Fold this sequence. Notes:
The protein is an alpha+beta fold. Helix content is 25%, strand content 34%. It contains ten helices and 17 strands. A nine-stranded mixed sheet has the order 6-7-8-5-1-4-3-2-9. The chain has an eight-stranded mixed sheet with strand order 11-12-13-10-14-17-16-15. β15 (327-331) and β16 (334-340) form a beta hairpin.
Amino acid sequence: MNTDLTSVENFSYTENKKIFELAKDFLPILGTDYVELYVGNAKQAAHYYKTAFGFEDLAYAGLETGEREFTSYVLQQGKIRLVLTTPLNPESDAAEHLRIHGDGVKVIALWVNDAHDAFEQTVKRGAKPFMEPKSITDENGTVRLSGIHTYGSTVHIFVERNDYLGAFLPGYEGHDSGYCPGTKGLKYIDHMVGNVEMGTMNTWADFYANVMGFANLVTFDDKDISTEYTALMSKVMTNGNGYIKFPINEPANGKKNSQVQEYLDFYKGPGCQHLAVATDDIVLTVSEMKKSGVEFLHVPGTYYDTVLNRVGVISEDLAELKRWGIMVDRDEEGYLLQIFTKPVEDRPTLFFEIIQRKGAKSFGKGNFQALFESIEAEQARRGTL
């Protein structure tokens, strides 16, 4: 299957339905079930994500629940479930993962109707098995799980939870620490971006097409995503219902070190670069996150001098968008507002995008120049450009 179905030059977002139909939906995915990060201290990380991002307690597993190998805090906001896991055994695979990569995304879990079939369908098409299908049960019912490897050390776990009524998974208990500073208005995961080595983007686009039945929604090349100094290329892969969108980035040749190469250097290989999380009121979300200490990339003030010439009429007050550093872009379906955090860890790896869609189905191509200049300014401060 040729995954290069579209390019920025000829892509019309009114053709989304046709693109989704090109996805071979032998693997129906109902949504993102959870995202699991391996972290050095799950207790402290949970406090950070509750305070800074507005997540709330959902479930817990650890020594108190009989778990001897790891501690996990499960947080939720809207439809987003975030699992923060710290290994208790320094000889474990999870501990080795942390030693090499630092804090980062290990599991992108996908909600399916049949975890066994999802495993069989993907493995027979070439996926490397990670977890053979299994059932886990407690007094709240049964969950069926299976899993496959994807880029780098990242894995997909298929979660079938139709027969389960518990807080999260068997082995976890409902959890309420008593600390709940309040949500920040985050609703769901819009997309998740993977960074891979130069020359391997097409390999992983083919993986999602041939192994998981995805289609190529849009392609960006180094003419679309570049500055005087750095460049990258990207293919956005989507499943049949459009619930799951995975942009796959690779570095392109440039005068200096791109943000993707910086990620690969510090993460020590491919991985999930950022999570884009959606809100219905980006000004409120960003203002509350900034009050809680979240740092965002700086957008040059001159960006706002001409942005309305490009995007036309919007409902928001431009002065407020400029105050908070929120960018705007438009496609044939409407417009979107977006902003990017600085890396949320000491290694310049994982970060978050906050996005509000006002009809737009695109990914902010018109903002790439300003965004990359902001990222390059941060790279220069770190001495990694």
